[in-house]
Amino acid sequence: MIHTKTFIATLVAGFALASASQACEVTLRSAETHPDGYPTVVGVKAMGKMLEQKTNGKYCVEVFHSAQLGEEKDTIEQTQFGVIDLDRVSLGPFNNIIEVTQIPSLPYIFRSVDHMHKVLDGPIGQEILAEFANHDLIGLAFYDAGSRSFYNSQKPIKSMDDLKGMKIRVMQSDVFVDMVNAVGGNATPMPYGEVYSSIQTGVIDGAENNWPSYDTSGHFEVAKYYTLDQHLMVPEVLVMSKKTWEKLSADEQKAVMESAKASVAAQRASWAAKEKVSEDKVRAAGSQIITDIDKGPFIEAMKPVYAKYVKSPKLKSLVERIQATK
Ligand code: GTR
Predict the structure, then answer these.
(1) Which domains does the chain have, with CATH numbers?
(2) Which residue puts its alpha carbon closest to atom 9 of ligand 1?
(3) To pair with 126 at 20 to 30 A between CA atoms, which of 55, 102, 152, 293?
(4) Top mutation candidate among 30, 32, 33, 211 for ligand 1, by most atoms within 8 Å of CB
């Protein structure tokens, strides 16, 4: 939190054209790996605007996009310590910290985007968000991230055989390491910001992500074979540091929660539009998109991953409840 000195605030408030974030009393710092304009940035900015209105200009949010505050794993720690107020991250980097986040991160757990929305917008989503409180964080809302598919610099992947021995970057999560190894690849966990140069220099052969990330990271420039196997649908999550949360009054906490929930619509709309724009862009740039792929063997190969991660009665029942959600 940054408390702007009163005299500066008064001065700035006097300018009709002063931006909202300059005029507010307390600026909450939000970490973000993607560049400005990315749907998650749109979502968090919408949240900040609503919060500012609800608190009559007391609180605003500044998004430090493009990994200005560091890679996701590090920003999570800093948010736990209270150095960062808000963090928009994929659920993936939480997998090794908060066990329950492994479940919505399992391959092929969601049948469709609609199914994922039904699960996350209902009691299951709330239960998962509530778990963050045991880890110095407050889970505020889930955002969309479409589905992730494999891409590489070497050759078109049409079957699991083609993946054999290929070095594929995954997020820093054991679930994803096991997932890639289960389909015959050689999983290499690393931060997002290192992927471009690692593909370029041949340290890895490829990675996996959704259309907008494949586009805005520039990975399509160095890995032009994109196989639409859609093995993951990992939601994004917006969290607040518990340290920041505890400094707020009950009314202010309510305003934060309501603003975060309300920003989901803006993020989803931005996401749907961006997915199409990014897909068109990478196709036009010469990416080869492999769509004639049989997902059956990939789904089958994930069984040991489920067996390894879905062990306790609690997690088993969670998987069953997700699958039973219509
Ligand atoms: C993106 C996600 C980011 C980051 C990235 C990654 O789809 O939006 O938060 O997790 O994937 O692969 O590291």
Answers:
(1) 4-145+234-274 (3.40.190.170), 148-233+277-324 (3.40.190.170)
(2) 90
(3) 55
(4) 33
